[in-house]
Amino acid sequence: MYNFKKGYYADVRVEDRFTSTVAYTNGMLREIKERNEKRAFIRVFDGKMWYFASTTNLSDVQDKLNGLYEQAKPNDKIEKNKIVKRYEINSDVNMKFTLCSVRNIAISEKKALLESYLPILSSSPLMSMPGATYVDRNSVFEFSSSKGAYIKYDYQTCGIVLSCTLTDNGQFFQAHHQLGDTEFSRLKGKKNKLTKSFEEQIECLKNAVAITPGEYPVILSPEAAGIFAHESFGHKSEADFMLADEGIAKEWVIGKQVASPLLSIVDCGKNVGSGYVPYDDEGTRARKNYLIKNGVLAGRLHNGQTSAYLKEKLTGNARAINCTFEPIVRMTNTYIEKGGLSEEELFAGVKFGYYIKSVKHGSGMSKFTIAPHVAYEVVDGKITRPVKISVISGDVFTTLGLIDGLSDKVEFLSFVTGGCGKNEQSGLPVGFGGPFVRVSKMFVQ
Amino acid sequence: MNKEYIVNKSSEITLNITDGKVDSFREIDETTNTVRVYSEGKIGVAGALGEVDFSELEKTAETKLLEGIPYQSTLNKNLNKKIENPRLVVDKSKIIPTAKRIAKKVAMACPKFLVNGKVQLGQNSGSYKNSENTDLAYKNSNLSVFFQVKDKQSSNIADAYYGVSLGKYGKSVEDKIVADLAMLHENFFAEKILLPNGEYPMIFGSYDILGHVFKDFIAEYYVSGGSLFSGKLGQKVFNEKLSVYVDRNPKTNRASAFYDGEGEIAKNYRAPLIEKGVINGILNTKNTAAMFGLPHAKTSGGSYDGVPTIALPGLFVQSTAANLSELLGDKKAIYVAITSGGDITTEGTLGLPVMLAFLVENGKMVGRVSEFNASGNILDILGKDFVGVSKQDIFAASENEVMVVNMNLINE
Prior knowledge:
The complex is a heterodimer of chains A (445) and B (412).
Chain A (H helix, E strand, L loop, with lengths): L8 E17 L2 E18 L4 E6 L5 H11 L10 H5 L4 E4 L12 H11 L9 E19 L4 E19 L2 E11 L9 H17 L1 E2 L3 E7 L1 H13 L11 H6 L13 E4 L19 E6 L2 E2 L6 H7 L7 E2 L8 E2 L3 E4 L6 H6 L3 E13 L2 E13 L2 E7 L3 E4 H6 L1 E4 L4 E3 L6 E3 L2 E4 L2 E4 L2 E8 L1
Parallel strand pairs in A: 4-6, 8-18, 9-16, 15-24
Antiparallel strand pairs in A: 1-2, 1-5, 2-3, 5-6, 6-7, 9-25, 10-11, 10-15, 11-12, 13-14, 16-17, 17-18, 17-19, 19-25, 20-25, 21-24, 22-23
Chain B lengths: L1 E17 L2 E19 L2 E8 L4 H11 L4 E2 L9 E5 L10 H15 L3 E18 L4 E17 L8 E7 L4 H18 L3 E2 L4 E8 H5 L8 H6 L19 E4 L22 E6 L2 E2 L6 H7 L7 E2 L7 E2 L4 E3 L6 H5 L4 E7 L3 E2 L4 E13 L2 E6 L2 E6 H4 L4 E5 L11 E9 L2
Helix pairs in contact in B: 2-3
């Protein structure tokens, strides 16, 4: 397919990405479009430096590859390079979405679906500036390497985002709800769910009270728990932070107790959803990777470079947001495994605290922060009134040790907007999930 | 039928630095093309990447009119302007040795840091033409130097960030960058000072504070009553020392065109949001300005194949003092280097978990402050508690201004 030269490692990643968007603002059609972009990302490695190029002209790939070869220096021993040796030589065609591809659904049908949900956004006199957006994406990836790998697979997401401004007596609340899925047909028939969500947000507008900043027990919903897992520990599991320092690798040793024994966190690209990555952007097959198992550090996430440096196995976590950028170590679907308590038993353990139901955004370094969207006060194990919280935060390791309860069911969530940001690459689709998680103390403000 | 033709080209060379060494080279060239047509209050848009036949794109845009997307637009007439600076900040042939040299110098100056980063040479150019004889073009170059450093013993992805965007580069700038990183290194490893709870002057990058209220300046939020500032256009809401603009001035924003996405040029290439404490602009497009009866802000942008939306390509905050010494005198202040997340309630209460902060005395960084939470109401922070804006950051190579406000420090 491509003429790879001896004396170098090289790979070519091609994405054929179809997207469509339909949007309404204030009852008027604002956007309706389909886009089909094809891009290729080409990498050449000579054992010392990587050389990258990107193109939107697929007939230009070989020329770009040749241009990179000219910049690099030939290396007779490249096949013995510790990074190159690790790259898998997979050969697979794995097309999951051919029969339900959003490419084959007329945009008029997508528009009609979105229009069917518009009345929800005018169901209360408190609602104004309704916004409704349908977005989908179907990508076909092809990966070829100079080692002989050839992989072809597809990826799909679709979803609806509804929003409006709620105002009442000088108070306002930006209400929204997102449905994310991988099949268009599953976005139908969600009127009741969406209606209930907006009714709940109206209650928040009318009745939410300010809180006194301080430390409180907090219960995280599956959505909040998934974001917490991603932000608090997922990023710390990305092994590129360990590059070039042996001291930290020794400190960050597998088997170390890092969290409550109740806690197990997994990253897995095999789960179908927004974080579905059956092969990463270096051609590595997805696998289930425990980051924490029963409170003990069990693994970390790798690309070829970090895997070679730390002498650990590849994990399938080399990802780029598109074929304009090189793959770096990123998460896929990150979730907390279930515990043994029913939801009722979990809440019963809180005398006074807060329940974080949905989240606007989160971030994490040594501290993590989560900005709640809908949150409630919990008194004597019961959810009482809605509250206004700007952020909850805490030291990552302290908080991981303070998890004292997990419910017995895991919920997975997919998203069609937002995504994870790292370095210059933001908006990477990832998936989250978890059970309800109880933390004995978090800073709430 | 009115028509617009837009081309944008970006050319970018990026050198990645890992552990003080350049380990990758990336070159990306991208061209986007857009044709918009307007007829009977409707818009049709077509876009494509790479080299295109504009007559084909025009036909596609005309067929898109059938979708019936309402859009109100009056095109600029007979406007011709070109601001083109073809000179690259650093010659392409010198970018790899430049990046290798600076990476090595920074790594030597910061022995306890793992030094990762990027050196990026960019050149952006483009043109806007319409059927009313308007013809605009720009070209500019920018060098950005970004370091993401970490304590070699830390388990964080990064512990501190340093970034500068430069229109000129030479030995004196390079020396300043190295000295800035050395200062960061020295103070990062200083013993942490636990300051008691209370109100302190805090120094922020302007975006760190203003970024939390940009949505309140968006037309749709503003007119719906869902903005903290709804109904206050033309009113004095903030401290009279505060003036904020959407920046497209080539002197301070070298990555964007001097005109907006609909070919409109703001006075001095900066569209006002706040002037002397008065809200003087709401972010809008020609369509939303007309739809909601707002003054046209000249702040549009959007994707190459989409209907125009608002854009915020850069931010200019009018300085009130040349430097921090002039602004603060001998008063102690806290330089907030990294906040993690943070958000604002609908009452305007802003909560910012501060990950990295330094003590500043007489305009100099003199130590590290323990992690804390900063809090206050945005109307106070930018009102009675607003101290001013220093043109010079504490980091000598930075061309960005910094904002000083009084906020509450709360220890966890």
